[in-house]
Structure formats: C-alpha cells, structure tokens
Amino acid sequence: MKRKLIMKKLTLTVLLIATLSTTACSEQKINEWACSHEWGQKRCIKLITQAGLSKEYDKAKKYLEISANYGNPLSQAGLGVWYQNDEYGEKDYQKALYWLQKSAEQGNEKGQSALADMYNNAWGVKQDYAKAFELYKKSAEQGDMRSQFHLGYMYAKGKGVQQDYTQAVEWYRKSAEQGYTDAQASLGYLYKSGKGIQQDYKQAMAWYQKAAEKGNPRAQLLIGALYNEGDGVEKNYTRALQWYEKAANQNYGNAQAAIGLMYENGEGVEKNLITAQEYYEKACHNGSNGGCENLELVKQKITNL
After folding, report:
1. Is residue 275 part of a domain?
2. I need a labelling partner for 205 at 20 to 30 A (CA). Which of 2, 61, 101, 292 fits?
3. What pTM does this model have?
C-alpha cells in the first residue's frame, strides 16, 4: 500500500511537470511550484542564490516569498534581511520583524542572528541588549560565525551581559577561525591589549594580517597603529602610513583621522595643517568622532597662524 501511494505521488508529480512544461513561461512556473513544496526547497534556495548573484532581484524576492510562506526558515530569514536593508528600496522593519521572528522560532541561526541585530540596534523595536545577547548566543552555539563575533563583542563591551574578556576571546576565536575578518581584527586587538589573554604582539599582528589581507579596513588601521607606535615591531612611520592609506581608501574614517594626525604633527610626512584638515573632514564625514574633534582643533590652529 505504501509503495502504491509513493508511485501515485510520483506519477502525479510527473504529470504536473509535463502539463506545466507545455504552458508559456513553464520553467518559471515549475520553479515557483517547487518553492511551494517540501521536495523543492533545496532547488528553491539554489534558485534564490542564482537570482541574487545575477542581480535578478525581483525574481529572487518572488522565490523567497513563496518559500517563506511555505514555512522554510532559511527563506524567512532571507526575506527578513531583505526588509532590514535599504539596498533594495523596500526597507520595512515591521515586515523584517515578522519574518525573522518566524525563522528564529524554528531555531534557524540566520534568523536568530538577524533578529538579534534588530534588538541590538533598535531597528523597529525597543533596544534590548539582553534579548540581542540571548539570540546571538543561540545562533553562535549553532556555529554561525557572524553571531559568534557579535557575542564576543557583547562580552567585551558588557552589553546585555557582564563584561568578560575571557569569554570575548573564546567567541572571537571561534569566529576568527572560520575566517570572519571582523573577529580576526578584534581577536588581534585583545592580544595587543592583553585583555582576556596574555599580551602577545606577534599574535596580534598575525590575526590583523589575516583580516587585512582580505581587505578588512579596521585590521589595516590596527597594523598601521602597531608601526606608528612601535608595538612589537620597529617604529616605522612610512609603513604606518601605507597601512592607514589602505583603510582610508575604503573610506574608513578612523584611518583618515590617523593620516590627518600624521600630517598635523609631521610624523613620517612633511607637516601640513591644510592636508591634515582635509583628512579630518573626510574622517568626520565617514563617522569618526576623533576626526570631527581634531577637525575643529586644526581649524583653530590654521586660524591662529
């Protein structure tokens, strides 16, 4: 009896595909139908990925919606993230919250992580670090490297949990070993500062370099700072400037501020307050508080010349 039922389902499936194949836009209809059935979810996720990579965003969203409504937690997470961002012109925190909650309730680590972002950043909800911590932890324990980084950060800053640098090191390391560059930079910083772990400049540089080679601007800035300060390496303003420039070229405000300071003080470059002001202006525009503060100070210096 069971075998007959299986054969009957297979026959119906084949007949339906054959029927759809004779209609206009058959491939699209088959794909949409696949996204609304359990057997087609693997194929659907692949279709969503392909559509995203080819920048066919309308198609990607359609598949996401069909699959999410079917109940797929990964698609629910994807749809929630879609509504979290400005990139597609459909930012809607309430819709994001709706889909991410559905995903997180099914235990999906991507949904938990993105939902944690909402509570961490007060996106459409009241800021709640404890709730964000709880969600990041659930996701991190499933191996999500992004959540592992955020969990480490919350331990380092004491947000939603008592400050604990030892735990911060542990979670940063889990994420860093998976190749997450923000975690690599942060782990390096804890080695440099000796917080939660024995101070080790060689380890700090090693982790910074892993992240910097992948283009992480914070890591590039931190390598520059080691050369600028002579921590664990011979002081070298030229190399410091080179690393600062790599990060500054990515519009990383703190690196632009660091270059401004070198021009203001004449460290490794000819002293030039006008050039310093230009870098501070860029830094301030890109969100560097230090850049904004130094901009006002250097303006006063120029006025008093």
Report:
1. yes
2. 292
3. 0.87
Average pLDDT of the segment spanning 266-274: 96
- Kindly report the average pLDDT of the chain as a whole number: 92
Q: Is residue 223 part of a domain?
A: no
Condensed to tens digits (0 to 9), the pLDDT of residues 242-254 reads 999 999 999 999 9
Note the pLDDT of residue 20. Answer: 47
Q: Does the pLDDT at position 21 exceed 70? A: no
Instruction: Please indicate, yes or no, if residue 239 is contained in any of the structural domains.
Output: yes
Residue 238 falls inside a structural domain: yes
For residues 155 and 14, which has the higher predicted lDDT (pLDDT)? 155
**Structurally, how many domains does the chain consist of?**
1
Q: Which residues of 209-236 are buried (b: 16+ CB within 10 A; e: fewer)?
A: ebbbeeebbbbbbbbbbbbbeeebeeee
Residue 188 confidence (pLDDT) above 70? yes
Range(s) of the domain holding residue 288 = 228-305
CATH of the domain at 238: 1.25.40.10
